[in-house]
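Usage example:
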Amino acid sequence: MSTEIADRRATGTAQTVNGRAVRRFTADVSAVGEPALWGFGGALALGIILIAGFLGLIFVNGVTTFWPKPIAVVETVDGRMLAGVPTRTGVYRPGERIVEAMTPEQRAFLEENQGFSERTLFRTANFDLTGDDFTWVSDYQKTEVTFPADFFYFERREWGPFVGRIAGIVIDDVAIPAEAVDMALLRREQREARGRFEQIRRIERRDIGAVNYRIEQERLSRRRAALRHGADSPQAEAAAAAAATRIAQLEEEFRSHQDRIAAIRAIDRENRIVLETIDGRQKETELSQIVRFFAANDLSFTDKAGIYVARWHEFLTTEPREANMEGGVLPAIFGTVMMTMIMVVVVAPFGVITALYLREYAKQGRIVSAVRISVNNLAGVPSIVYGVFGLGFFAYTMGVTIDQLFFPERLPSPTFGTGGILWASLTLALLTVPVVIVASEEALAAVPRSMREGSLACGASKWQTIRYVVLPKALPGIMTGLILAMARGAGEVAPLMLVGVVKLAPALPFDQFFPFIHLERSFMHLGFHIFDVGFQSRNSEAGKPMVFVTTLLLLTLIVAMNSTAIIIRNRLKRRYATGHF
Amino acid sequence: MTLKTLTSAAALVGLLAAGTAQAQMQIDPALPTYQPVSGVAGSLSSVGSDTLNNLMTLWAEGFRTFYPNVTIEIQGAGSGTAPPALIQGQAQFGPMSRPMRGSEIEEFEARFGYAPTPIRGAIDALGVFVHKDNPIECLSLAQVDAIFSSTRNGGLDAPINTWGDVGLTGEWANMPIALYGRNSASGTYGYFREVALFGGDYRAEVREQPGSSTVIQGVASEVGGIGYSGVGYATADVRPVPLRATDADECFPAEGQYAASGDYPIARFLYVYVNKNPNEPLEPLRGEFIRFVYAQQGQEAVMRAGFFPVNEFLANTDLEAFGLTPSGS
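Running the assembly step on the lines above writes:
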């Protein structure tokens, strides 16, 4: 009762003044806690706004990137014509020299706007013909902006996009002029051409790839024999002779595959398209070069949605092209997920066993607290330091030794002696192991003493107690530590740049050749891909939207991996909540 | 050895595509079209220049259309990382945006007993970029030196701190110059220091950026900015300033034909260093890659990366250094 009165005195009482409820404080304001409450609430709101704004920015930019945009045709005052996709606008004040060179009308236009003018950045594409992809056009330079229906946006395999008209097509070496081009026919032919391209790719990847691989194996076996028995030994000579005959057979096979490709390529060259820019320059190219094309100003909503979905599909399922500026990110998605998985597989037992020993077996004393302090400090070491350690220890020490012992025939080309997905995963495992140890220790400490004692009193040994009572009870807490470690590992890029992440690693870490999973290979990573596209690409303007898309993808991927782990943890919680006691 | 001295010697023999006044440079039609051969497989890795990062990737993509089973890994953290990677055997190719220094070559020789061999696969005009609204028409190398360096070996008496100091008027007269440059691992950093700064030192105010593209983005975001980067990285937000070697010279824009003729004062070759034992032939994998670089398709990739192609004479000279013949012969 007395506490209630004190409480009421501190927080004040509600009174009615002129029909309104007014709180009156009877105690000192510092005792009330109200200002602190506002402070806490405000800090939380600020945090939420910042995070929501950041996620919103990535989401909005990432989601809209692939939506097809119209092509504007701009006529300028000096009679120049320009076709491009408007990307962004800005306001600026034209300099004195520009104003001096202006016509009276333009000057009047500027004066109306207090000397400022708006300008728009157009993606004019056609890099192969003009040498630039983007052009700024100020408002005072424009006379007319139209959106003609006969302008197409072509996504090409090389040279980036093309904006222009179709000046004609060549089907089976028969030229069809622009007026007679039937869009349905063109679409069908383009699909067929893409099919031919895919076919060539399949032959190259699967058939020629296999031949090349076997030739390489023969060459390695010859070198292995030479290393083992000496270069001039009879064994080496026999091996060389055997390899030579097999290589000759394989080369025969190689030539037959190549003839198949040449036949397809010959058909390919008979099906071409003539593209024309707005100023009449023409470019003839094979139809198979065109990944996708559409009349940007003549699209229904369903057409746009179709292109949008197709672009996402391409992004998620294909390899990058044009130095990572276009195409997809499949190898990067694969690399990110695989690396994180290997890391978890390594870090989970390692971290949990360490925590178990520290908490359950080790005699608590100076040494254990020193170890504990060191583990906590490890969590604060900058990640790049782990990268340097990974490179020096894993790649240069362990890897080089493995190469000398097991792959001498491949030297001087390193196999394990350079960065690779295995070394990267191990480095990240080292980086995240403190998180797992600390979380697991906390979880083990939280298991009530009474439960252990109960178990021991029933006659269970110490190990049985840990195995059947303590560990199940602590498992959800350990899982939380693993989730934190995974989130940190998947988002970490700096150490990876030293131990195996590369700009281009088109071969996934697995293929059809023994041993199928190649842990020594370098890999691509979404985080590094973002850095690369954003800060290393030739055209940073064109790279910007891709940065948002890739960031969105990386965030989605991390959320997906974490959610899976959280679901597993909740299942475990339920399972063990009722199972004991 | 600058491009100017080298190409002026070559020009005597009349080997350069002389003064073709086209906006876009053409690939030398005498270069062969690449013809694939059998039995090329294995993995290659390339460690080095960040300027060459995109070009190496385009070369790798192109090479892989002929040899799908070849894996090529590309890392680009700066030219300074290439020599150690070559010496350690971590990489077969060491792209560099500057020639190797004497000390680096010595280290290489100490390990292998011979010097590394360079592929000179592309020409770059190192651009000095300003914001797109900046009206500056031309800068001399001495002015560039006085803008970027603290030593002013170029001969100007006073440092240049504002745009008014290089002759701009109006609102530009008092606008301070914001400097953007590369980090010291970069070959661009070293080359620019040697040629544009006459071997001097950078000012402390230069904001060092980790990549070629970041320099451009920095200049694009600041009206008073100036920075140097490979011309292939230009965007619509920045403008390369035409340069002249001395006040008596004409101004030349950062374009292909002026870079190739050596008129543009800070043009350079882009190198890819290879560990080639002079007493042994190159194995097919690396050999074919080099032949690909000097074929039509390889030089087209050079243009796609925004750099300038080399001509047949240079291609054949370099191929000979590797003991190779042009593709298809």
